Amino acid sequence: MKSLKAGRVKLYDANPETLNALSGTKLQVSIMVPNQEISKISSNQSLADQWVQNNVVPFYPATMIRFLLVGNEILSYFTDQDKQTWLDLVPAMYRIRSALRSHNIRKIKVGTPLAMDVLQSSFPPSSGTFRNDISSVVMEPLLRFLSQSQSFFFLDAYPYFPWSASPGDISLDYALFRDGNFTYTDPGSRLTYTNLFDQMLDSVNFAMTRLGFSDIGLAISETGWPTAGDIEQIGANIYNAATYNRNLIRRMTAKAPIGTPARPRTVIPTFIFSLYNENQKGGAGTERNWGLLYPDGTKVYDVDLSGKQPDYTYKSLPEPMNNKPYKGNIWCVVNNEVIRSNVSDLRSAMMYACSQGNGTCDALEAGKECSEGASLGLSVSYAFSSYWAKFRSSGVNCFFNGLAVQTTRDPNEHISSRIGINYGQLGNNLPSPSKSVQLLKSLKANRVKIYDANPEILKSLSGTKIQVSIMVSNQEISNISSNQTLADKWVQINVVPFYLETMIRFLLVGNEILSQNSDQDKQTWLDLVPAMYRIKQALRSHNILKIKVGTPLAMDVLQSSFPPSSGTFRSDISQPVVKPLLRFLNRTRSFFFLDAYPYFPWLASPSDISLDYALFRGNITYTDPGSNLTYTNLFDQMLDSVNFAITRLGFSDIRLVIAETGWPTAGYVEEIGANIYNAATYNRNLIRRMTSKPQIGTPARPGIVIPTFIFSLYNENQKGGPGTERHWGLLYPNGTNVYHADLSGKQLEYDYKSLPAPTNNKPYKGKIWCVVNNEVIKSNTSELRSAIDYACGQGNGTCDALQPGKECRKVVSLELRASYVFSSYWAKFRSVGGTCYFNGLAVQTTTDPNADISSRIGVDYGQLGNNLPSPSRSVQLLKSLKAGRVKIYDANPKILKSLSGTKIQVSIMVPNQEISNISSSQTLADKWVQTNVVPFYPETMIRFLLVGNEILSYYSDQDKQTWFNLVPAMYRIRQALRSHNIHKIKVGTPLAMDVLQSSFPPSNGTFRDDISRLVMEPLLRFLHRTRSYFFLDAYPYFPWLANPGDISLDYALFTGGNITYIDSGSNLTYTNLLDQMLDSVNFAMTRLGFPGIRLVIAETGWPTVGDVEQIGANIYNAAVYNRHLIRIMTSKPPIGTPARPGIVIPTFIFSLYNENQKGGQETERHWGLLYPNGTNVYEVDLSGKQLEYDYKLLPAPTNNKPNNYLYHGKIWCVVKNEFIRSNNSDLRSAMAYACSQGNGTCDALQPGKECGEVLSFELRVSYSFSSYWAKFRRLGGTCYFEGLAVQTTTDPSKLSSLSFLLDTNY
Q1: Rounded mean pLDDT of 596-600?
Q2: Could you give the CA distance from residue 1012 to residue 578 in angstroms, rounded to a whole number?
Q3: What is the DSSP-derived secondary structure letter of residue 1014?
Q4: Is residue 372 predicted with pLDDT exceeding 80?
Q5: Can you tell me the mean pLDDT for 1230-1248?
């Protein structure tokens, strides 16, 4: 109210919360005694005192109460009880005034608001007379009270009502205080009136004077003008309301009071009705639309109650559309805003209407025309309309307690504003029709359009309330156009078996046929309208009248579309095709079906057209110079260009249906703006606009419902053309949302989940390559070869590099050869129309396939140590090693922050224990990505997200269950990444060599039987589809250690020289053990049908220290292995493996640090390139550029045992000296554990045994460790004890009288 600059406010009660809120303001307040309390107060001073005590005293004077009104328009009610209240009115006013005086409150004036119907005569004003039934018995006492108390005559005066009752006799300008030449001179008083308001006021002034009370001043307790109403309530619009109230305010706030002709220069206190639009008021439609504000506090129109704002500073108003009486048909239908929450009330209202007889609901009875297939809403609407039609002349209104509303739209036409969807079927992975119908319901779709008349889909839609559009194919048009029998047959087969159960409402003949330009197509143009006439006739022959016949057309039917007012159909179709089409649509009351995609004109001119303007966003406007219409979005421009084109051919009444619109979520690199964020924004804003009430329409056709179908239900993977063609869906083929959209338009924007930020709204200026589409490669080997042959056959040197002796000849992978050919072809022929498509086999990429996988070496950054450097220090050390990548075993935020802004590519990991939960919950996957990826990406170059670590190497029942959860979890993680528009992070899982059942010879590589089909095949399918990698942990050290007599150490260390192995199965020659291991996995993948998946070595390396038995674990071997590995993996051109030559294999060396808290054998703690203090264990340059002779000399190996591979001496397990003093409690716990395993482990330490009490604590613990190891070593027991134990070849018995046990193998 303050923002409106109100000086007064009138309440219709004495609401304490409102009165408290008004406390301390300068607003003068009017409160009210309810009508029902008048009679009681009139005869009881105590009740009057109590009313004042409760409703005035607690608030006055902090709240500036100035008027206390007794009742509201009480003299306008006419029951016997009301008439008694008339007589009680003035006594009640006296008692209320006495109650105020008892509290010494004299500034509050007591009155009562009366309506204009207290007058028997009001025209001309000088004849103003109060009604005979109240003049002497009520009005005279009332006026006496007002005169004595110097109060006001409170009048509710609405010029709208006398004007709307006689618009032919009273000028609208006269009612709106508008300047004009119209005046009226009262013949009785000779006073001249310039507006209707003054006439009304003076008719009351003359009536009061006639009773002898000329000194009572008027206060206007209510006046105003409605902004909306029922259809018959003409003139109820924003323009008139703003005009009336602004002129009223200016008049009433004039510094020199104007008064009225009969009471000039008199101040008239005035209250405008009302502050808000009130949706629960009964009566006609205007009753709910008098407010200056909407309920959310926004202005219905601008108004300044102080009267100081000049008129020209107000914003322009919408033109009035209903100032003249409506002469068309009006129906009374269900108010859709209340239908859901009032089902029982609707049934009661329908029963009431039907019970009034006169055949109101006969058509709804069993066996009648409306008894089948009608929803509750339609049945009730029929009852309301029938009742209103039959009883309207008797004064019945279309209200039914707010359940009904008037409409000019024939409910028989069923034009709903709810959104439909296009259900395309060009995919080989789409859900069944029945599942699709369930998904349509979940989206709250009101309509669906299919591109044929698929009987399975039509059956699935039977019994639903979804309105259906079906289609005659383009190729059937010409035959049907000349043969009524074919048209009849088409309808007999495709419509009759399903209608009425399936609510077919549109039958479309062809699809965008006028966009096809071959000679045959041009003949079909001329056959289009004749075919539509024949289809219409076929429907009529079956008495099917509710199905509209049309044809969808694209925007290219226009020759000119900008500005919209210049909209013109193409000259080649305007007269011969479009004009006959419009004539047909007009005659059959059908629609112009338009496919309108703002994405395409924006994409063509992103620098000229604002993206916000295309997405219904922002304050950008465009004013058409030809029509002077203002546009706020590109969509309206497009629609109106068609509307103007239709009007130009003489058919201004034909309405539009949007047969297709939408926005793509992905596309080729050049198809900018195709992303989830823009698509969701466009479609949500479109839905909100198209389902708004009242309807918005377009600037050229305001207030018109435009039925709309969004394209499309699914992403369709078999559609040809550019990348966007396969990415318009609201749903993925598995039925999950690409993004959320509520087609009913009722979901608020803030209820939607946040969207991934758009990353491609600006034109891409980098390089683009054309490569194989991994999603189709496996099942299309023959097609891929044919595509290669086609591209190479185009000449221009396309495939020269693949010829014998050329640089790419050794590339044997079909996938890589095809990618080279596709990119070469596209580079050479793109400028002359060549595309990167190849029937869906190719896809664009911004990743250079020549450097698709960096050959730089990565490091595994384990953190199982209590003495490791900080993350920031570790990043500096990674840089000093020239690491190109780093893999961590979690998603440590400190590490990820430290890696931000570096060029180090990062791999993060989902822990094993989270796999099962994530596999069954997309929400958990989303949360994981939201927490561990989104805050760091892309500043931290996360490139791999690994789900679990060697999970298939664990064998408990719980682990085996996790095996089956692995791939589902990977899919969910990838989906979570995509929801944030993150496409550069590959999802995988690291596996150890033990996933193989057979690994030798390599060509015999086979996955284990327990996982091959159940786990590995789904995993490989995932990796293949997502263009990800098989992450392998491959350590030549372990097979060499297990067979040092059979495998040469040089062969394991890449130093074999002339040592080779020829695989008898493949005839391939191997020069090192790592290649054998890698190819055994390559062959295993090929054996399952996935030869194109590339390897990443997730872990490899060589230990620098181990237990006594772990021979070969030394600095010399580790340095030799890793330096040679780096040199091989970074060589240019890439070497690959014998089975996959020329392939880059990304590689991570394990590990960055020696980690002192790792369990297991001693080697586990000695794989690091660095000691925990950051110094080198040995020198290594991960870039591969440092030459061998530049490295410092290495310490000679002492445990390779070239002539005696196994250590055959004695070994004991004893306490590590450094832990004796500082870990007493840990040592006691470890000894207790060892002794608790039984088998006589610690018998010698018991009282009375040989040890007695002579051993020190250290020796007692060492005895228990050695004894335990000797007894349990063969069952998997280790000499570790959480780092407290160490192997030794020194006999600890020499330090005591006790013989320490040894394993019997020694």
Answers
A1: 95
A2: 62
A3: I
A4: no
A5: 81
Rounded to the nearest 10°, the torsion over CA 1251, 1252, 1253, 1259 is: 10
- The CB density around residue 283, as the number of other CB atoms within 10 Å, is 11
Quote the pLDDT of residue 778.
Answer: 52
Rounded CA gap, 673 and 603, in Å? 8
Burial of residue 1012, with CB atoms counted within 10 A of its CB: 0-12 exposed, 13-18 middle, 19 or more buried: middle
Q: How many CB atoms lie within 10 A of CB 957?
A: 7
Known active-site residue 807: no
Give per-residue burial for 242-261: e unless 16+ CB within 10 Å, then b.
bbbbbbbbbbbbeeeebbbb
Q: What is the pLDDT of residues 298-324, one digit of tens each?
A: 899 999 998 888 888 888 887 787 888
- Per residue in 518-571, pLDDT (tens digit) is 888 888 999 999 999 999 999 988 888 889 999 999 999 999 999 999 999 999
Catalytic residue among 512, 1099, 1162, 1164: 512
The mean pLDDT of 651-663, rounded to a whole number, is: 91
Q: What angle do CA 778, 784, 787 make, to 5 degrees?
A: 160
Q: Tell me whether strands 109-111 and 65-70 are parallel, antiparallel or unpaired.
A: parallel
| Three-state DSSP class for residue 407 | strand
What pLDDT was estimated at residue 1223? 63
pLDDT 10s digits, 632-645: 999 999 999 999 99
* Amino acid symbol at 757: A
Instruction: Give the model's pLDDT for residue 691.
Output: 87
Q: What is the mean pLDDT of the chain?
A: 87
Burial, 1087: exposed, middle or buried (Cβ in 10 Å; 0-12, 13-18, 19+)?
middle
770 in Cβ contact with 840 (< 8 Å):
no
DSSP string, 1263-1288: HHHHHHHHHHGGGT--S-TTTTEEEE
1262 pLDDT more than 50? yes
162: amino acid identity, one letter: P
- Reduced to 3 states (helix: H, G, I; strand: E, B; else coil), residue 396 is coil
Mean pLDDT confidence for 450-457 = 96
* Cα separation, 510 vs 557, whole angstroms: 15
Q: What is the CA radius of gyration of the chain?
A: 44
How many C-beta neighbours within 10 Å does residue 775 have? 16
CA 68, 72, 77: angle at the middle one, nearest 5?
A: 155
Residue 372 phi/psi, 5° resolution?
-110, 140
Q: How far apart are CA 948 and CA 935, in angstroms?
A: 21
Phi, psi dihedral angles at 1031 (to 5 degrees)? -90, 120
> Is 232 annotated in the active site?
no
Q: Alpha-carbon distance 455 to 1135, whole Å? A: 57
Q: Identify which has the larger pLDDT, 89 or 1186.
A: 89
> What sections of 211-278 are H helices per DSSP?
238-252
At residue 702, the pLDDT reads 87
Query: The tokens 């924006």 sit on which residue?
Result: 602
Three-class secondary structure of residue 708 per DSSP: strand
Taking the C-alpha atoms of residue 884 and residue 269, their distance in angstroms, rounded to an integer, is: 82
pLDDT reported for residue 776: 61
What integer pLDDT is reported at residue 496 of this predicted model? 92
Residue pLDDT, tens place only, 769-819 = 888 876 565 556 788 888 888 888 888 888 887 777 665 554 446 777 788
- pTM (2 d.p.): 0.45
Q: In which element (H, E) is residue 780 found? A: none
Measure CA of the first residue to CA of the last residue in the chain; give whole Å: 98
Which letter, b or e, does each residue of 220-233 get, where b requires 16 or more Cβ atoms within 10 Å of its Cβ?
Answer: bbbbbbbbbbbbbb
Of 73, 222, 287, 660, catalytic: 660
Structural tokens at position 607: 């620098």
Tokens of residue 432, six digits: 């069944």
Region at 510 (left for phi over 0; alpha for psi -120 to 50; beta for the rest): left
Apex CA 1120: angle with CA 1118 and CA 1124, to 5°? 120
Q: Of 153, 170, 302, 121, give the one whose Cα is nearest residue 218.
A: 153
